Amino acid sequence: MDNNTINFQLSLDPFFIPSGARYPIFFFGLVIYLFCISCNMTLIGLIIMKRNLHKPMYFILFSLPLNDLIGITAMLPKVLSDILTDTSQVYYPLCVLQGFLLHMYGGGVLFILAAMAFDRYLAICSPLHYSSVMTPKIVATIIAIVWGLDFFLILVLFALQARLPLCRSEIMNVFCDNPSLLKLTCGNTFINNIIGLLNTALMQIISISIQVFSYVKILITCLVSRRNEARSKAINTCVAQLVILFIFEIVGTFTILSHRFQNVSLDLQKIMGMLIFLVPPILNPIVYGLNTHEIRSNLFGRHTKVSA
What is the DSSP letter of 18? Predict the structure, then answer.
């Protein structure tokens, strides 16, 4: 096997698609991508343009659609291009970049949701101190920690992978990720597997523990609160974030389980792997738009005025 081919050009394992279904699948995927882009860009645009959304909650929320755009853009256009052109080649550096961005997306979802839960905890459980605690400096620090910690953990993962020699050139997936890249190596991957598991566990523990603490405190506060309006607003906001978390965790669990059963077809495993980068970016802006009053009123403000 030519060493240059191993280092710079890899082959992906494409879907089996009948020739007559190639264009319908491509256009269906393109519609999904454009819909996702428009929804997330709308949410980003609202937060930037509307001054009444210039609050700590929405500055932190801004990271969620941005992260969703990174995830779906790193994965779907390449898959659609391969379907349309019937090719399955990728240069090694681009494969590493794609895998890095996809793992950044996964960790970003967990850390962003944790930051949003902490913000809601302060706003609902300590409303009198909220403005003094959530200053612009503190909000910027929280956002920097979210992205910085995510970047550092994924960088360590891929730096460990880069030190291993390559001896294979076929990625057994339709996109690149760290497990697929590790299968190309012929060195000892024990440390990589341990660090990968520790990274995943650390991300989950940090995110879930912060969210469980925050939502338990919020639930207790809502139960003892006598203000029905405030309680309803708090519950609606938290429900949106919990729905987003459940969507991500359920899709992620199905993805992991699909690779643990030998009787699951390879194409189904690939589809399940893609869902984690498709379902949350599509549903997140919709869920948040429908369950957050301020976003909904800004989005449909003209219609509300006309009906009034």
Answer: -
Summarised one tens digit per residue, pLDDT across range 167-183 is 888 998 899 988 889 88
In a domain, 293, yes or no: no
The tokens describing 143, both together, are 């956002």
Q: Is residue 27 situated within a structural domain?
A: yes
pTM of the model: 0.90
Report the alpha-carbon distance of residue 99 to residue 158 in Å, rounded: 9
Find the CATH number of the domain harbouring 120.
1.20.1070.10
**127 assigned to some structural domain:** yes
Average pLDDT over residues 185-206: 89
Domain boundaries, position 231:
16-235
DSSP structure string for 239-306: HHHHHHHHHHHHHHHHHHHHTT-TTS-HHHHHHHHHHHHHHHHHHHHHHHHHH-HHHHHHHTHHHHHH
